[in-house]
Amino acid sequence: MSHVHRDDSSSSVNAEAAAGKALDSEDVTIAYVGGGSRQWVPNLVQDLALSSFDGEVRLYDVNVEAAERNAEFGNRVQDDEDATAEWTYTATGDLDAALDGADVVLLSTQYDPTETFVHDLDIPESYGIYGAVSATIGPGGIFRAMRTIPLYRRFAAAIREHCPDAWVFNFTNPVHFVTRALYDEYPGINAVGMCHEVLHARDKLAAFANDHLGMDADRADVSANVKGINHFTWIDEAYVDGVDLWPLLDDLAHGEEGTRTYEPADLEDGSPFTDPWQVSWELYRNFGLLPFAGDRHIVEYATWFLQGGKEGLNRWGVKRTGSDFRAKHWTPAESEQTTDVEAWLSGDRAFDLESSGEVLLDVLGALAGGEEFVTNVNLPNRGQVEGLESGAVVETNALVSASEIRPLSAGGFPRPVRSLLSTHVDTIETVVAAARDGDVDHAFQAFLLDPQVRTLQTEDAREMFAELVDSQEAYLDDWALDDADVLAAADSY
Amino acid sequence: MSHVHRDDSSSSVNAEAAAGKALDSEDVTIAYVGGGSRQWVPNLVQDLALSSFDGEVRLYDVNVEAAERNAEFGNRVQDDEDATAEWTYTATGDLDAALDGADVVLLSTQYDPTETFVHDLDIPESYGIYGAVSATIGPGGIFRAMRTIPLYRRFAAAIREHCPDAWVFNFTNPVHFVTRALYDEYPGINAVGMCHEVLHARDKLAAFANDHLGMDADRADVSANVKGINHFTWIDEAYVDGVDLWPLLDDLAHGEEGTRTYEPADLEDGSPFTDPWQVSWELYRNFGLLPFAGDRHIVEYATWFLQGGKEGLNRWGVKRTGSDFRAKHWTPAESEQTTDVEAWLSGDRAFDLESSGEVLLDVLGALAGGEEFVTNVNLPNRGQVEGLESGAVVETNALVSASEIRPLSAGGFPRPVRSLLSTHVDTIETVVAAARDGDVDHAFQAFLLDPQVRTLQTEDAREMFAELVDSQEAYLDDWALDDADVLAAADSY
Amino acid sequence: MSHVHRDDSSSSVNAEAAAGKALDSEDVTIAYVGGGSRQWVPNLVQDLALSSFDGEVRLYDVNVEAAERNAEFGNRVQDDEDATAEWTYTATGDLDAALDGADVVLLSTQYDPTETFVHDLDIPESYGIYGAVSATIGPGGIFRAMRTIPLYRRFAAAIREHCPDAWVFNFTNPVHFVTRALYDEYPGINAVGMCHEVLHARDKLAAFANDHLGMDADRADVSANVKGINHFTWIDEAYVDGVDLWPLLDDLAHGEEGTRTYEPADLEDGSPFTDPWQVSWELYRNFGLLPFAGDRHIVEYATWFLQGGKEGLNRWGVKRTGSDFRAKHWTPAESEQTTDVEAWLSGDRAFDLESSGEVLLDVLGALAGGEEFVTNVNLPNRGQVEGLESGAVVETNALVSASEIRPLSAGGFPRPVRSLLSTHVDTIETVVAAARDGDVDHAFQAFLLDPQVRTLQTEDAREMFAELVDSQEAYLDDWALDDADVLAAADSY
Amino acid sequence: MSHVHRDDSSSSVNAEAAAGKALDSEDVTIAYVGGGSRQWVPNLVQDLALSSFDGEVRLYDVNVEAAERNAEFGNRVQDDEDATAEWTYTATGDLDAALDGADVVLLSTQYDPTETFVHDLDIPESYGIYGAVSATIGPGGIFRAMRTIPLYRRFAAAIREHCPDAWVFNFTNPVHFVTRALYDEYPGINAVGMCHEVLHARDKLAAFANDHLGMDADRADVSANVKGINHFTWIDEAYVDGVDLWPLLDDLAHGEEGTRTYEPADLEDGSPFTDPWQVSWELYRNFGLLPFAGDRHIVEYATWFLQGGKEGLNRWGVKRTGSDFRAKHWTPAESEQTTDVEAWLSGDRAFDLESSGEVLLDVLGALAGGEEFVTNVNLPNRGQVEGLESGAVVETNALVSASEIRPLSAGGFPRPVRSLLSTHVDTIETVVAAARDGDVDHAFQAFLLDPQVRTLQTEDAREMFAELVDSQEAYLDDWALDDADVLAAADSY
Asked: Going by C-beta distance under 8 Å and a sequence separation of 6 or more, which residues neighbour residue B23?
């Protein structure tokens, strides 16, 4: 419901982004875009079955077969004796039908990584850029954004047409680029970008409190003033059960915990997801605030740590998720590999209904009138982060209550940290603007701004850009490649 | 604890105003400035006795005797069988001693109204300005601010010296002027302006839900997105137990409830505190947002309703609290009139320990690690209200938790409402700036800006200003009256 | 030519508004919208004949006959022996044809005052609002804007289609509303609002210098730092031939010159255009800056001086231009009254070619590569006035040179003066926004904001608004009158 | 003269920075700080002798003897038959005496380069940073700022005391850091940063017009819309004698002129001051605006061109001014080398009075009431550059007239260029803030922000910082080196 005239000059984004559709806890319609997913959908199915509200889930996927398998699974789970809620599942390949009148839209899609991510990692590496993830910023992240934004603009347009008031949760990376693009296409959208990184960081703080202060805390007991942009969030206050954690954190930063060093050999056999937080401690020591996402993401934004290639990165205990890892660990919807769902459906594996612990269900519960709670969300800035541009998608805590997701006012940053953030906001805003009319040269300006790219000469940046376009042209057909001066000038395109 | 460099250029007020001193629930030291109060202190005494945390209260007052009586009462209440907490009370006439090392400072003082308020009401009335309250804006409110600000700057300076990290709660009107002046003197202060008006408005919404939707709600069930400045707050969203109240409010505004008219005779015998909300409904119909404070305050800011004198004001069901009322209903600390406390102490009246329902105790409880909750507070704007000036003291909801009072991001306003608010922000900021060096001519510029004053010629405004100065000169001795061109030019000074 | 990407987030108006089409001094095509004018066109004709550049003028008017008479006159003047330039004149009733490929567009139109202005003055007066001019702000000015903006949006759209790069000079009042609306329709327009008031004020300063400092100055020797919005401009610095005039101005303000008082009888027989500047001096004494437009305009914005009706206004030496005056002094294009042009054409009067002294010719000359000079212009704010909203049309000095009109950075205002200005900016921006979709209720919000209207109860404001609509409905057909709640609620519509 | 209250909230710098002291052309007192200079002073002496105004010059220098030699020369030149003005010269080692009552202060000082610049260049080079000039930004520039700012804060404080209204012209690099620090110490100062780079760029445009359009233009005929920060200025419009130069510039950028490449060998024997503008053309092709300072400066800010060391830089035709060059080409005041002045004084060389062509004399002439003109200046941003922070020292054109230097409103930037600029503004503002209390760790944050430094790991940046401190500790004694965590953590300090 729009109560007020929308000519408020103080806001570059018109969306309220805070109050939206009321959810009827007995009849919630969820449209799942990317409904063939082999991991997310099964989790959601179980969480919904264990929830306190009922409804319908429409699984939309270009791979309808995968969606149908998930729907079959979803309906089957309803029969489980532990299920407390009633949900029905349907599968469809028709986006419009899936969205029609939906109360909630979940966005979670992914392209084939062997055709996309692999190049995002390997081509920059050939220019000396050794990104840790290359998925949300840097040359690889920018290209992922360029592939994804046009599709998500179409999603936003379809939402405007078929379910304009729905709550839209975006899980697709790069979360900031993609969520911003949804608002750019449809400023009235109620879209929220969701991410796990901050939750894991809160786990970490709970563990510190338990280990060093003898507390018995978990994530829910941790309150930290999160602010920044997705994957480059910071905190300047942290409490566990009311106890100020800052003196401990300061001690840790300057003690053994915060000053470990690593050799490449140390990481050889470990998981890239182990996170010793050495980058975070180093940034804390230099800037006085603590980063609050995994180090593997932070280094893509605070690019000192990428200098010196593998050795430079490994020194901080960060192990790259390389292209081989990416290709191996992605289970495409159409894969022949047997998945949990198939095993369950075929009876090859016993099924045990259990909660995934995802925060989404808590959010939906609170929106439907259940318990209020505070969690981190990505929303256009309407003041919740002081000093970052109005309208840019920022990440902060928000209070979730019936029909509302309202950010907490997180304050600002000391200038040097704000400066680091602003450059990335400029990259994101420029790519989103360039995507409006598929202006490749405009996107290349954003590419040049990126601190990873600034370690190259402009001519090399142009070559790298052209190679990236060349390698994944099939995914860039919304871009006016033929009109691009940057491609005409590059040799390698 | 200050974690970060303070050169953030994006903020004109340096204070964090959100995170402050941790309270130890077993040992809280409260300094009460204005501790001879006959109403507030007895309420606090009982609330503390029934609370879950212990400590010490120092009652400071220029009238030490009144403070001593309250201290005696406070200590006596501890013996009550229902008391759950342990508190000790002392009285003092030494501000520095009262503040020394305090965890919490409560500010609540008042000047003799027959020497001050009475003129604030009567002199403007003689110029045709028929204010409803004349206590927080308009000519009377500006003069109250001019009397109060210098004293509160001294309080802020003493707090900086004796208890720089204390939580400071200001109850003294005009709350916006006074709270702003505390920050102007000491930007690092953790000061929060407190006010009841929004709580009463939430009661009202609960009553509407009960009467019209058959709910059984009270204030605590009402969630409304409060924003504005103290006594001129608005809401654009309201939920009761998760139910969107807006459709009902829209119906009420356009139906019988919202379109009543009154004659002076209708109000003759009623209390001025009865509030039929007709001004609020009229503003809602015109601007699309609903004011969220008593109509008697709103009309001082939205001055259409003051036009036409008594009849004009009464037409909306608003009855003035005139100078006679003021004089009669104020019980000075030194009054000979027997008060509750005296009656209790003397045994003339039976004492029954009961909670006052004040929100302050909930705030202190949450700060000390108890249950988190949301309530309205007045704090410098760091983004919680979009489109109003950074640093201006605004009123919004805040989440109160251990060691934190963090505003919720309330969004902005449609331009016309923002414009109404901005003029008053300009008045407030100008008076606060003028008070820095007692510049009377500068204060007169603020006076001229006020929409009530703009119904006069500048010459008449000058005369009125001079009469007001003349009538209360004893309370304005921090101002450089001798250097004032405006007074030299006026005939009546 | 657009050299740069236009996604600059820092600007709410995309237009450069500074650099535009190069003029070829031997072939300038001017389209004159309102070309039947009996005063402006003959002046222009003579100025062009005496200029140093040649070209063609297309006179467009709905009254083609009047335009034809002017064209005939224009072509005849070319034969004058003193003519130094070659111009040809044509008349047309086809706007598109007039604009096609034009280099310069002049906008100067007016509605029949007996059907419009007369009501703008008389209806507010019946509500106790005694405006001095009622033509650019206040209830009358807002209605003039409501009548004019839709037409000028169509002009802007036609310019976008037929001569997108042309220099557009708008002389039509209310200059700020109308110029702002041109940019709102076509952000790329090179439109400049032009006005005489500042020029007359510079004459006044020259006269002061001559009278009191024994100088021999004229307007061209006066340099003053103009800033504000049209008809509510101020200066904070003034030099005559390099001499700082401020000490003299300060003396005058506080001496006999600045402290005269008037009785209605003093003004009875005088012209309303005599301007003793008493309002300006009074504002200077109160705010420290000097208004820099005629007092009769200033009082419409600084509304203290309108209080107390005729007597209140006359006290400052300001005489109203009432509705009778308006009706009498307007010479409609189609009037039967013999004009200068007819007299010249018929040979009834001898013709003597002479310059009008209009600044427009100097502007065109500089744009065509002639001498650079500084004059006051109305343009969207891109920083030239600090503290007023970006995109609002403000008035400052500008340097005019070949193909450029570049504002000088005028600095900001002390807060109280900025506050007075901001309220009017909010009114203007709200009306322009409301006009986008003809939203009458939105326009009424702007009406309520106006300080003149704030002397009424909201109900009276509504009645007055409805009466104004009723009186000039024929000129408001772009507005959605049937959907207007404000009109439905008013009795008098 | 201060006409207005200074509480304008819209400005973080209170200074007007536009209007200042009137100069009496018959009696101008100039204080020259750095008056022993062997090049600047002799030039000034001759320009003054040929000017149209008279007065006194006080040459202040820590090396009094050098100042005395210059004074002797200055007084001798008065006898030249071509001298048109009367000036007297004195030398002093007493700063306060030199400044007392001065109308104009010129700031131009320099430290011994073998102890300072040499390290600024060589230490970063040892970390792989191959700066072209290393004098105004990058690690070397930041250290130059750290050495210079404390001294210039003292100059500003002395000016506040001895000649608060004087016009202050700062020629000392880094101009943006230093000018900003003057305002930080004394916000009321009338200080202007002066630089030649833009003038040389205008020469270049005149040459293009002459070579390609057959014009006969010089610098004075070129009008270009300059904006940015010193040494990183850009233009988006350029006219020569009213002819739009942009089509030509666009042709040149894409033709042979703009696409030359160089090998190190090509530059071996050339001067580093030859400027083929290849960096400028490349930036123009990528960003649509043209840089407008020497390429050797631009590359320090647009750091792609520094990648790849000497070869990378030389490829664009830019030759480094290395530490050997610096040491060789600096003529210290106390040098034994015979200078022009000595040769003239001794009669060893014939003296021929001639103008230096410096713009300063034109500025002083205009301020004293002579001809108005437009030139580039560095002033705190009060709106002249849209989108850069208020108060930051920016470079734009300004109109110089009697008692006024008023910037022209230059508009904003496309986002990517604004982003490049903002990072450097953040560096500058952070160093200036750090210098307030000598906070070395705060300064190191600025150092880390610099794009040249971001090519290192944080640990290497720390080492480099410590080495730089170590090498020039004698010049950093206003900094709290002993309290610096960054130095304690570094091995090399």
From this structure: B53, B103, B104, B167, B364, B367, B368, B369, B403
pLDDT, position C7: 38
Residues 383-402 of B with CB under 8 A from A: 383-387, 390, 396, 399, 401-402
Write out the two tokens for D459.
Answer: 């640990």
pLDDT tens digits, one per residue of A109-164: 989 888 999 999 999 999 999 999 999 999 999 999 999 999 999 999 999 999 99
Is residue B397 classed as helix, strand or coil in its secondary structure?
A: strand
Check CB contact under 8 Å for A7 and C433. yes
The pLDDT of residue C6 is: 32
Residue of D254, D409, D420, D425 to mutate, interface with C, max C Cβ within 10 Å: D409
Q: Any chain D CB within 8 A of the CB of A261?
A: no
Listed as ranges, residues in chain B with pLDDT below 70 are 1-19, 330-338
Confidence at residue C332, expressed as pLDDT on a 0 to 100 scale: 58
% chain D with pLDDT above 90: 80
Is D5 catalytic? The answer is no
Residue with tokens 């002798």: D49
Residue in B308, B420, B486 nearest the CB of C457: B308
Active site members of B: 196
pLDDT of B293-314, one tens digit each?
999 999 999 999 999 999 999 9
Q: Which two tokens stand for residue C49?
A: 């004949």
* Residue type present at position C17: A
Q: Tell me the average pLDDT across D268-284.
A: 94
Listed as own residue / partner, the contacts of A308-314 with beta carbons closer than 8 Å and 24 or more positions apart are A308/D457, A309/A128, A309/A130, A310/A130, A310/A264, A311/A264, A312/A130, A312/D457, A313/A130, A313/A132, A314/A262, A314/A263, A314/A264, A314/A266, A314/A267
| Those residues with Cβ within 8 angstroms of residue B219's Cβ, 6 or more apart along the chain or in another chain | B199, B202, B203, B206
pLDDT tens sequence across A421-477:
999 999 999 999 999 999 999 999 999 999 999 999 999 999 999 999 999 999 998
Tokens (6 digits) for D240: 């020569």
Mean pLDDT of C149-157: 98
Tens-place pLDDT, residues C319-352: 999 888 877 776 655 555 567 888 888 888 888 8
Contacts of C458 in chain B (CB under 8 A): 282, 286, 304-305
H/E element holding B265?
helix B264-267
Which tokens sit at D478?
């206003």
Helix ranges (DSSP H) in D220-372: 246-254, 264-267, 278-287, 295-301, 309-314, 323-329, 340-346, 359-367
> Which residue among B7, B404, B409 places its CB closest to the CB of A415?
B7
**Where are the alpha helices (H) located in A337-457, listed in sequence order?**
340-346, 359-367, 415-436, 440-449
pLDDT at D18: 53
Cα separation values, B348 from B40, B68, B342, B431, C457, Å? 21, 19, 8, 47, 52
Distances (CA, A) of A234 to A424, B21, D444: 15, 21, 20
> How many whole angstroms separate alpha carbon B372 and alpha carbon D184?
43
Segment D2-19 mean pLDDT: 38
C9 reaches A (C-beta below 8 A): yes
DSSP state of D193: E
D215 touches chain C (CB under 8 A): no
A312 contacts D457 by C-beta, under 8 angstroms: yes
Catalytic sites of C, residue numbers: 196
Beta-carbon contacts of A491 under 8 Å, excluding residues fewer than 6 positions away, are A463, A466
> Above 70 in pLDDT, residue A99?
yes
Nearest beta carbon to residue C442 from set A5, A12, A442:
A5
User: Which pTM value belongs to this model?
Assistant: 0.95
Residues of B in contact with D6 (CB under 8 A): none
Domains of chain C in sequence order = 111-136+207-329+372-493 (3.90.1820.10)
